[in-house]
Amino acid sequence: MSQNPPSLRPDLAPKIKFSEPKRDGQPTIGMVSLGCPKALVDSERILTRLRAEGYAISPDYSGANAVIVNTCGFLDSAKAESLDAIGEALVENGKVIVTGCLGAEPDYIREHHPQILAVTGPHQYEQVLDAVHAAVPPSPDPFIDLLPASGVSLTPRHYSYLKISEGCNHKCKFCIIPDMRGKLASRPAHAVMREAEKLVENGVKELLVISQDTSAYGVDIKHAEDRGHRAHITDLARDLGSLGAWVRLHYVYPYPHVRQLIPLMADGLILPYLDIPFQHASTDVLRRMARPAAAAKTLDEIAAWRDICPDITLRSTFIVGYPGETEAEFQVLLDWMDEAQLDRVGCFQYENVDGARSNALPDHVPADVKQDRWDRFMEKAQAISEAKLEKKVGQFIDVIVDDIDEDGIATCRTKSDAPEIDGNLFIDEGTDGVNVGDIVRVEVDEAGEYDLWGMVARTPG
């Protein structure tokens, strides 16, 4: 048995899970994908294009003719991690192409690693392909290199991320993502639906909807309707819910119209799960962040959501130690947590990010104070999580099976748990006949701080 540590970073993408046999002489590209699930989708698109051109794909450095490193630039610590990954790829392979969010700062990367072959920014697919062609010319065999209809997936076959837009229109002082990825650019709703339909046809049981601001989907294209589908998050969620797969919404900014999604959850069309980045609860801190400062109204909204859909799971992320944060303002956050009783919580200690406006704010919080506040915040969040999970003991719930190890122990997720960032439900025995990707009913018999344990229900629950 294992438990998820409270320090899980919600911006990290799942680890790549991809392998395939290669033919003799086939050019091979390795991929290292860092950062959020949105970056993972970019990696999938790049590899799908490369696979269609006859390249084999390696999940590691072994046998790769060149390596693509898809970087993250979300925080300075993430930038350092990206630089380390580039350095490791250079040592292990020697031929390295850099893309992703940190690629928006090519001079910064070349200052540390001048020997890289090329640098491209986020979602610059054509430039990445050009760089690969220059480093490792394609050599396709049209009789062998056949691309599956579903493309290349870096996640298990039973779930997939579905990116509905790029960029963001917000100007939060601590964030540089709009500078790296641009303003909101929504995909046409019919294109999103076509991709979702293909994924479900190919066995995907869970669609994880992602963007930088999911609830703003369609604003930039005036909620255009085309081929029977309207580019509005409520309409899109309803349409996706008709496909029969689990539909999970991530990065939902708390606009008033979000309440329109809750009846869809109560009706079972989409999962009763909202991932909302509240960031803080103090009005003054939120103003310094350049975010809406309506924590009290947020509590009212949460109460209304739970009234409509009592089973709703709320996940969020917060920043402690933001410049100028006083002990009184931090206490406001702790008191708000007592009121909100969020189900899943992640927390960052504030970091300066090169180019962020928050760097220039006065009264930066000392590192030891940030650590102390992080510890206290996570202690409260952990206690809330433990109490909520304890109430699930004895309940019958549906879970999706992510893995079964050699001892027959199944690692599963409930409707309340997203891959990699939330908890798990473990089935220790009785998994004969259960397969990865199955959705099975279990009876919960034990709870921990973040995880549950249970047994396959032998009678209807």
From TrEMBL:
UniProt cofactor note: Binds 2 [4Fe-4S] clusters. One cluster is coordinated with 3 cysteines and an exchangeable S-adenosyl-L-methionine.
Region (Disordered): 1-27
Residue span, MTTase N-terminal domain: 27-137
Radical SAM core domain segment(s): 154-387
Basic and acidic residues bias locations: 12-25
First-level EC class: transferase
A molecular function GO annotation: protein methylthiotransferase activity
Reaction equation(s) it catalyzes: L-aspartate(89)-[ribosomal protein uS12]-hydrogen + (sulfur carrier)-SH + AH2 + 2 S-adenosyl-L-methionine = 3-methylsulfanyl-L-aspartate(89)-[ribosomal protein uS12]-hydrogen + (sulfur carrier)-H + 5'-deoxyadenosine + L-methionine + A + S-adenosyl-L-homocysteine + 2 H(+)
Keywords on record: 4Fe-4S, Cytoplasm, Iron, Iron-sulfur, Metal-binding, Ribonucleoprotein, Ribosomal protein, S-adenosyl-L-methionine, Transferase
Domain TRAM: 390-458
Coiled coil regions in record: none
UniProt xrefs under InterPro entries: Elp3/MiaA/NifB-like_rSAM (IPR006638), Methylthiotransferase (IPR005839), Methylthiotransferase_N (IPR013848), Methylthiotransferase_N_sf (IPR038135), NA-bd_OB-fold (IPR012340), Ribosomal_uS12_MeSTrfase_RimO (IPR005840), rSAM (IPR007197), rSAM_horseshoe (IPR023404)
Gene Ontology CC entries for this record: ribosome
Location(s), subcellular: Cytoplasm
Enzyme Commission number(s) from the entry: 2.8.4.4
Binding sites annotated in the UniProt record for [4Fe-4S] cluster 2: 168, 172, 175
Cofactor(s) this protein requires: [4Fe-4S] cluster
Residues the entry annotates as binding [4Fe-4S] cluster 1: 36, 72, 101
Family recorded in the similarity comment: Belongs to the methylthiotransferase family. RimO subfamily.
Function: Catalyzes the methylthiolation of an aspartic acid residue of ribosomal protein uS12.
Protein name: Ribosomal protein uS12 methylthiotransferase RimO
Organism whose genome encodes this protein: Octadecabacter dasysiphoniae
